[in-house]
């Protein structure tokens, strides 16, 4: 197994990067707007908050790569910030649209627990972020952190909810959950294989 050079990757910071500033701003903006949406009862504001979250999530990743600012601390900040945004916005959706409760009951544990553990697993190898997990295992990476997987994991579920297709949203959430369970088992095997368990 070939891994990337660990010398620069095992560096934690710097913390003050354009990418990390974007992560903090998009998280504060999305969470604040999500709370305002909940208090005011506005589904439109929840949608705008999701837009800020997703646009900011794309921008911080692009900035990190384009500016050479990929760090392990930045990757962890991004992962934690995604969970803060998702928790607030998903629960806001449930409060404003109770029909999405079943979707949330499947999606939230999958994203908040399984996906968090999977996303942080990159720390067990000398990788800058989960985006490089293909260097450990291409299948796990393709199902979790490839551009297509990232889009389906959250946007597929929320997109179906936005279109009023709750049964489709539950089906997508269940499919994502099954992928996360399979991936967790696969990562446990990889940790054992590499003597990290």
Backbone structural class: mainly alpha
Helix count equals 8
Could you tell me how far the N terminus lies from the C terminus, measured between alpha carbons in angstroms? 17 Å
* Number of domains as seen in the coordinates: 1
Helical proportion, percent range? over 70%
Quote the average pLDDT: 92
Radius of gyration: 17 Å
* String of helices and strands: HHHHHHHH
The percentage of residues in β strands lies in under 5%
Low-confidence stretches: 1-9
Total number of strands: 0
Global morphology: globular
Largest sheet: none
Helix-strand layout with pairing:
Elements: H1 6-9, H2 18-40, H3 43-66, H4 72-96, H5 101-120, H6 138-144, H7 147-162, H8 166-193
